[in-house]
């Protein structure tokens, strides 16, 4: 256990089970990705995702499933999607899942492109690259949560993308982690502990209506398979 009260966990917390929840969540996300087709709406995609959850033995969701398509990829978690948007032939979308396995939380997100759209592909790849650059800074430089997000914003700008500061990172743990009231990662003034925090990265094109999202556990063991 860690001394910082904002990083508290329950008596039954198991770091191995948390890593397993992460791994299984990534498997679910990629199965959903395999079923995404042009023409699908976000509501249809979420209904399909629920079927995938059943196939994978998901115990429950701990936050609403989010699948954003096209121009909706620039919106934050709290903003409503335009319900008329459907996945185009040359388009992008992201998936954000909060799943529970063995009473431990997984939280994963990634952005994908269908058809041919080099700019959207570049945006998706930039979100992944920025995540790993920030995660490396966490490992190597001992930055606190505030400094990590300041660094992320600076690097996004240097890469030519708009950084969404309303997407702020958060705690994770044994379900429900929320009883410990850890707050957001960008407001955390200590060095985040291994296996306690989700780093969220959301960027957007500086002028065009599309963006990208990527999130994973700080302290995740190994990188999930990444493809465009």
Summarize the structure.
The chain is an alpha+beta fold and 228 residues long.
SSE inventory with pairings:
Blueprint (H helix, E strand, L loop, with lengths): L14 H21 L6 H15 L3 E10 L21 E11 L2 E11 L3 H24 L3 H15 L2 E2 L6 E2 L25 E8 L6 E7 L11
Antiparallel strand pairs: 1-2, 2-3, 4-6, 5-6, 6-7
Helix pairs in contact: 1-2, 3-4
Explain this structure to me?
- This protein has helices at 15-35, 42-56, 118-141, 145-159, and strands at 60-69, 91-101, 104-114, 162-163, 170-171, 197-204, 211-217.
- The chain is of the alpha+beta class and 228 residues long.
- It has one domain: Creatine Amidinohydrolase (Alpha-Beta Complex), CATH 3.90.230.10.
- The strands form 2 sheets. Strands 4, 5, 6 and 7 form a 4-stranded antiparallel β-sheet that branches. Strands 1-2-3 form a 3-stranded antiparallel β-sheet.
- Strand 2 and strand 3 form a beta hairpin.
- Helix 3 (118-141) packs antiparallel against helix 4.
- It starts with 14 loop residues before the first helix and ends in an 11-residue tail after the last strand.
- The model has no long low-confidence stretch (mean pLDDT 95).
Which structural category fits the helices and strands? alpha+beta
Radius of gyration: 17 Å
Question: What is the overall pLDDT average?
Answer: 95
Amino- and carboxy-terminal Cα gap: 38 Å
Low-confidence sequence ranges: none
* CATH class call: Alpha Beta
Instruction: Give the name of the CATH superfamily.
Output: Creatinase/methionine aminopeptidase superfamily
Element-by-element helix/strand order:
HHEEEHHEEEE
Largest sheet: 4 strands, antiparallel
What percentage of the residues does DSSP assign to strands (E)? 15-25%
Number of helical regions: 4
The domain count comes to: 1
Helix content: 25-40%
- Give the name of the CATH architecture: Alpha-Beta Complex
Number of strands: 7
Approximate shape: globular
User: What is the CATH topology descriptor?
Assistant: Creatine Amidinohydrolase
């Amino acid at each position: 256990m860690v001394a910082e009260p904002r990083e508290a966990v329950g008596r039954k917390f198991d770091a191995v089970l948390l890593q397993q929840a992460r791994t299984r969540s990534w498997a679910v996300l990629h199965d959903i990705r395999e079923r995404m087709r042009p023409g699908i709406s976000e509501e249809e995609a979420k209904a399909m995702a629920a079927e995938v959850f059943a196939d994978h033995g998901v115990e429950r969701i701990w936050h609403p499933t989010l699948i954003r398509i096209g121009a909706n990829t620039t919106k934050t978690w709290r903003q409503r999607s335009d319900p008329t948007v459907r996945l185009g032939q040359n388009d992008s979308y992201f998936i954000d899942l909060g799943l529970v396995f063995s009473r431990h939380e997984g939280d994963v997100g990634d952005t994908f492109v269908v058809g041919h759209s080099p700019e959207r592909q570049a945006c998706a790849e930039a979100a992944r690259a920025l995540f790993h650059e920030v995660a490396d800074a966490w490992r190597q430089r001992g930055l606190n949560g505030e400094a990590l997000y300041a660094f992320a914003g600076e690097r996004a700008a240097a890469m030519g993308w708009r950084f969404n500061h309303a997407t702020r990172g958060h705690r994770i743990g044994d379900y429900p982690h929320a009883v410990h009231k850890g707050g957001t990662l960008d407001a955390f003034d200590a060095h985040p502990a291994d296996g306690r925090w989700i780093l969220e990265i959301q960027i957007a094109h500086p002028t065009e209506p599309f963006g990208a999202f990527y999130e994973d556990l700080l302290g995740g063991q190994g990188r999930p398979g990444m493809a465009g």
